Amino acid sequence: MPQPTVPLQPALRRVRVIPREPTRRTPLVGLPRRPLSDVYHYLLTVPWSRLMLFVVLLYVALNTLFAALYWLGGDCIQNATPGSFGDCFFFSVQTLATIGYGVMAPKTPWSHWLVTVEAFVGMLSVAMVTGLMFSKFSKPTARVEFSKVAIIAPRNGLPTLMFRMSNQRANQIVEARVQVAVAMSERTLEGETMRRFFDLQMVRQQNILFALSWTAMHTIDEASPLFGHTAASLAETDIEIVVSLIGMDETMSQPVHARFSYIPSEIRWNHRFIDIIRLDTRGAWYIDLGYFHDVEPLSAAVVGDA
Q1: CA 198 to CA 177: how far, in whole Å?
Q2: Tell me: the pLDDT tens digits for 255-278?
Q3: How far apart are CA 209 and CA 62, in angstroms?
Q4: Rounded CA gap, 160 and 298, in Å?
Q5: With contact defined as beta carbons under 8 Å apart, do 292 and 166 qualify?
Q6: In degrees rounded to 5, what are phi and psi of residue 147?
Q7: What is the pTM of this model?
Q8: Deepest in the core among 125, 150, 226, 240, taking most CB within 10 A?
Q9: Cα within 13 Å of Cα(251), Cβ side
Q10: Could you give all domains of the chain from N- to C-terminal order, each with its CATH number?
Q11: Residue 213 in contact with residue 276, Cβ under 8 Å?
Q12: pLDDT tens digits, 213-222
């Protein structure tokens, strides 16, 4: 009869499944080296600063290349200083961008053919960069803030895992759905190590209207993968609680998603979140996100009753 797997020892802990840095990726080793096979996807995922640097370098490189070709053609540009690489470069800029000031113009078959090729390259490059910029700018994103820590505290007499989410935009995420799983490494009795995910049953998994704040809760009962753990035992594991939120942005009418994760050092036991829903002097409710990440310890009486 097969035996159950045993938890991986702390010495062999893995890195986060969901890195806190958005641009950080788990390195992949052994893939075929095809640097140009997925340039479009790469440029959509890089930060704006890196994309703009790529566009500037491409623009300078194209103009430098064509300037060198004009320069090799000798005195082929009307009203340009013979042998001046600078005049060739700025003539290339005018041609690539189809500015056409009328001061410099091609005057030999060599330069006419180069202008033809460069005008075509300029038309294609402007179209591709425009499409890339629009796709990146219009890509729907969710500005969802997750609490920096999760808590495990009694709720209705049972230990409950809780964390908070907040919609940072002044709109609504319709039909928001949260899924939570526990990722842990296990080693079989045969010595094989694998990373496994166990779904956590949430008290409320779907929110028809996620506009302000949402506290997600998972009851730690006999069916929970976290059942039987204490703060000390959980700290000795490589457990990572992975959170995924999916919904429909009402402004863009497009699906958006956000992800986050918690490791044992980011889980506070027997604490509670400080209330962020408050009343102003006029009796109106408001959300004070200044306390969104703050927690406080429970009283000894509350912990003892659980």
Answers
A1: 17
A2: 888 999 999 989 999 999 998 887
A3: 50
A4: 13
A5: yes
A6: -60, 140
A7: 0.70
A8: 150
A9: 12
A10: 39-138 (1.10.287.70), 141-305 (2.60.40.1400)
A11: yes
A12: 889 999 999 9
